[in-house]
Amino acid sequence: MADTFKPETPEQVRDAIAWAVSEEAPLEIVARATKRAIGRPMQTANTLDLSGLSGIGLYEAEELICQAGPGTPLADIEAVLKAQNQRLAFEPMDLGVLLGGGEGRQSIAGVFACNLAGPRRIKDGAARDHLLGFTAVTGRGEIVKSGGRVVKNVTGYDLSKLVCGSWGTLAALTDLTFKVLPAPETETTVLLHGLDDAMAATAMIAAMGSAHDVSSAAHLPAGIAAGGVSGGATVLRVEGFAPSVVARVDALKSELARFGAGIATLDGEASRALWRDLRDARPLAEPRDRAVWKLSVAPTAGPEVMVAIRNAVPEAACFYDWAGGLVWLGVPPGGDAQAGIVRAAVDRVGGHATLIRAAPEVRASVDSFHPQPGPVAALAKRVKESFDPKGVLNPGRMTAGV
Amino acid sequence: MQMPEPDRDVLARRSEIVAALREIVPGEGVIADERGMKPYESDGLTAYRTLPMIVVLPETVEQVAAVLKYCHANGVKVVPRGSGTSLSGGALPLADGVLLGLGKFNRILDIDFDNRTVTAQPGVTNLGITTAVQHEGFYYAPDPSSQIACSIGGNVAENSGGVHCLKYGLTTNNILGLEIVTVEGEVMRLGGKHLDSEGYDLMGLLTGSEGLLAVVTEVTVRILKKPASLRALLLGFPTSEEAGACVAAIIGAGIIPGGMEMMDNPAINAAEDFVNAGYPRDAGALLIVELDGPEVEVDTLIDRVREIAEANGSTNLRVSESEEERNAFWAGRKAAFPAVGRISPDYMCMDGTIPRRQLPEILTRMTRMSEKYGLRVANVFHAGDGNLHPLILFDANQPGELDRAEAFGADILKACVELGGVLTGEHGVGVEKRDLMPEMFSEIDLNQQMRVKCAWDPKGLLNPGKVFPTLHRCAELGRMHVHRGQLPFPDIPRF
């Protein structure tokens, strides 16, 4: 008989996990359950639902910190921050667009546990760079805390880094404290039209290597549109204080004139809409049955990886973010979702490929997370066991045995 | 401060261990005589000294791996060391341990301007990275004040910060890849030139782990383009309350300065006596606010900060109009430690962090403690992030003063935790703050951290005696009490 336990206090989370340990009955850990369709399908009978631990406990704008329960909707937090002209600088993506199930529903715990970030990742870091401290219940049924409520802290191991990107396999979060930052006064996007992938990569690298403080750099190949911008566009975002943005956009335009492309700009809401779509990988959302990969490589390697993949899979569609270092890739469904080809191409240059969207039967047979070399995988398994020796928290979600 | 009792069995095998290590690292790479080992007996926390059993200075990753493998197989403890500038005793040797110095790993291996990365061996200095890329206008952002001497490997071990970390982050936010050697001698790569980890963020865990989890043999860092313009404001305030309110108002206005430093009156006067920086001697607190970025941005923000400072009661306000003037503003702050060193035979530098709004409260408490212990204290802070560096003045030659200074320091750190802060913002726990860890963490919290160590180092051979106040065997930590047959959570809603 499958149960969903919905605790309302950290002590109840502890009791539920202690019970799971004693019964050796693994739990699926969810908060708002918007990312269930990522990773290996699990065999857990019971679910631990953290959405009952919800709400912003503390928000001190001048200290740049915010603290909230795991089930707090991200949308609530973003609204509260916006009222004080602040934001989460890492720009968490909303996977609801790719996975279905609606947008704006995810929890703050999901954002951190899955280490989600958006186009601003290259300037301001990922979720893992913003989690300052947490309280959680380990797979030993113990309430532990780590980190603190100040932005500068090196006391003890930085377990916040470990929890970010662990997909609920190490501990069930019961409380999170994270760094918030001022939102910019304004933003403008510079568009270059008509560059091919290789030239676009060169232009993005030039922009990121300039002193103009470009916060995001993406490229939409021909045929891939986003936020009202048609394909064949290289887009560069400049954010900050109004006079500074004007000056930097002008400087950037003259510096990039040598690429011989048509140059245009998008301001304010038009710019924000474009980057929201890129953040959420909306250009690849349709057709719904397409398998979607997220590739992380060195920025200069992005186009090269795509040449290798297109040679084997001509129907592959993609766009580039993170100045070329993030490739969002769509491939025909079925089989292994081209895992062999994709991973071989990535392994040649160094990096990793994560399967973000695919049918359950594909995810049951293909590793969603990039396989690690033996010694690293063995170490990761020992780290898992140090938190969850009986394997009761999201077992197998990331890889078999972890 | 007590270190673990040296293992007599290991000490008895010393000559055999020296011979075996000489097989691995030939020539002068193994130092076993007292005079040769003397320079390694302490790090930047010079109050504590121990002669290591043996010093080993390998030159290749293979040698590091072989040394660790041998030590692991033979139950010999290992203390890794970079440049030895730790202020918390992280590289304090063990009498029955090998001191593994990485100083010969001093080469830059790769500079990649297109991907904005530098790959360096761990013994390269922090400043050495910037020096290698500044001809193209790039730099490495984290800038601990020891940056001329401290090594990038040590920066990883300590997750070093610096004056600019409010805007640019700590080491952990600026590294992309590591090559490491585990205590078992296994060489691994984590990350690279790409972003984010494919599995658990082991690189993030290693950063700031104080040499207890693995030995770093290569580091890939992210470099940034140097800002086009840098200007600073020097702001005097009657009291630290007003200075603190000014800092809050600057951040409240959405401005994150490149650097924002505060000094209290004793620190202002010590610095002024030493370098004549032109600081207002009668000010209760001094703020240096540095803005960096495109010229037009810096000029705009200088005006905004000036207005905020005036509105918050600044009595003394200067804006740098030249690079010389900006450097002059910084001269006193950068010389604060030696300046205090001039007015006192010894000083002890503490490193707590508090929520910034608690600044007046912690200063009041420090004044009371100063009276109680009969020792003077001068304060410099990284004002933006609440990281305090109280300097406790004492004379080690006066009987009892070192003990009093230590007790004073411990009281300050306890107060930091009480006010919602932490024991260390950037210097690390090491041996210095080890015994204070229970002020911040419960036994359950600490046991979980030690279990993480067990995943890397089950025999507890890598830098033991640091960070954790009590040592437990991994087998004991791994035990779990399972209560079967309990009817669980009668009060948890279920569906």
Describe this structure in words.
The complex is a heterodimer of chains A (402) and B (495). Chain A has 402 residues and is α+β, with helices and mostly antiparallel strands. Chain A folds into 3 domains: 50-182, Uridine Diphospho-n-acetylenolpyruvylglucosamine Reductase, domain 3, CATH 3.30.465; 186-279, Alpha-Beta Plaits (2-Layer Sandwich); 282-365, 2-Layer Sandwich (Alpha-Beta Plaits), CATH 3.30.70.100. Chain A is built from 13 helices and 18 strands. In chain A, the strands form 5 sheets. A 5-stranded antiparallel beta sheet of chain A has the order 4-5-9-7-8. In chain A, strands 12-13-11-14 form a 4-stranded antiparallel beta sheet, sandwiched between helices. The longest helix of chain A is centred in the middle third of the chain and has 15 residues, at 242-256. Chain A is globular and about 65 Å long. In chain B, 35% of the residues lie in helices and 19% in strands. Chain B has 18 helices and 18 strands. In chain B, strands 15-12-14-13-17-18-16 form a 7-stranded antiparallel beta sheet, with helices on both faces. In chain B, strands 5-6-10-8-9 form a 5-stranded antiparallel beta sheet. In chain B, strands 1-2-4-3 form a 4-stranded mixed beta sheet. In chain B, a hairpin with a 5-residue loop joins strand 8 (175-181) and strand 9. The N and C termini of chain B lie far apart (54 Å). Chains A and B meet through strand 1, helix 1, strand 8, helix 6 and strand 10 of A and strand 9, helix 8, helix 9, helix 11 and helix 17 of B.
Mean pLDDT of chain A: 96
Architecture of the largest domain in chain A in CATH? 2-Layer Sandwich
Query: How big is the Rg of chain B?
Result: 24 Å
Shape estimate of chain A:
globular
* Strands in their spatial order, largest beta sheet of chain A: 4-5-9-7-8
- Distance from first to last alpha carbon of chain B: 54 Å
Shape assignment of chain B: globular
Number of helices of chain A: 13
- Helical fraction of chain B equals 25-40%
Query: Largest contact between protein chains?
Result: A-B, 109 and 105 residues
